[in-house]
Design a protein that fits this description.
- It is built from eight helices and seven strands, in the order βαβαβαβαβαβαααβ.
- The protein is an alpha/beta fold.
- The radius of gyration is 18 Å and the shape is globular.
- A seven-stranded parallel sheet has the order 3-2-1-4-5-6-7, sandwiched between helices.
- α5 links the parallel β5 and β6.
Length: 268
């Protein structure tokens, strides 16, 4: 199906194919489902096949096609199989959302295990570059878009978050440099930087904090939300919608940018 004229519906992804890495509960699922709701067919990549199957069913229920490809993005051959499978199934790739992520060790830089830091860089930075490079020729054919999922860790320097911030700062530099390199080919590269996301993992953490303190989960939520301008925490779909915007023709003049999605917790 031919892509729509961007002026008809600039937020539409109709006729486009979007690859999403790191598909799972929470944001990974939302990125895939919201892309499908915008009209895209999707390629789902993650290590856990059961998660891929669940999200593929949701996409199919929306009337869009979903291709599930179990993928270890730290492995060159696995990434190559993903790229080949996407092109074999659809013949094109118009968008790539790099959401795969591994939490670096949360420890002071003065004592952190350097091998663990290296492993974090492999998944969060080098593997992202690997997958983007493999799909660049296809993206360039149709003037595609790449979205890097970054983090609000960019905006603070709290203790024990040093290795995390190093990896995400490197990812931001990667995105900006790729925007410059790939721009002449018509490929846009942008980042989103969410902070807290009100999804299952955070809900579990807040319940744990509430039990420790002898308060309600709602109180923990309200205290955290009070640090944001909107007095609430963003949900996965709200973060995913910003990624869909960057994938869409509505952002056709936007590249090299990082959009914070944090309900006003940090200003940039």
């Amino acid at each position: 199906m031919a892509a729509q004229d961007p002026m008809e519906d600039p937020m539409s992804l109709e006729g486009k194919v979007v690859v999403v890495s790191g598909v799972g509960p929470g944001l990974g699922r939302a990125l895939a489902v919201r892309s499908a709701q915008a009209g895209a067919d999707v390629v789902l990549a993650a290590r856990t096949e059961s998660r891929l199957a669940e999200v593929a069913e949701e996409v199919a229920a929306l009337g869009r096609r979903a291709l599930s490809v179990p993928t270890d993005i730290t492995d060159e051959a696995s990434c190559r199989r993903l790229a080949d499978a996407a092109l074999e199934a659809y013949g094109r790739v118009d968008g790539l959302v790099n959401n795969a992520f591994a939490i670096p060790p949360l420890a002071d830089l003065g004592t952190v295990d350097l091998d663990a830091v290296r492993a974090g860089f492999e998944t969060n930075v080098l593997s992202t570059l690997r997958l983007t490079r493999l799909l660049t020729p296809a993206l360039a054919e149709g003037g595609g878009s790449v979205v890097m999922v970054n983090s609000a860790v960019l905006r603070h320097s709290r203790r024990t978050f040093g290795a995390y911030k190093m990896a995400k700062t490197a990812l931001l530099s990667l995105a900006q440099s790729l925007a410059t390199e790939l721009g002449p080919q018509g490929v846009r590269v942008n980042s989103i930087a969410p902070g807290y996301i009100w999804a299952d993992n955070l809900k579990w953490y807040f319940r744990s904090l509430a039990r420790e303190r002898g308060v309600t989960t709602r109180q923990v939520y309200d205290e955290t939300a009070a640090t944001t301008d909107l007095r609430r925490l963003p949900e996965p779909d709200e973060v995913a919608d910003v990624a869909v915007f960057l994938l869409s023709p509505a952002a056709r003049a936007v590249t090299g940018q990082c959009l914070d999605v944090n309900c006003g917790e940090w200003h940039h």
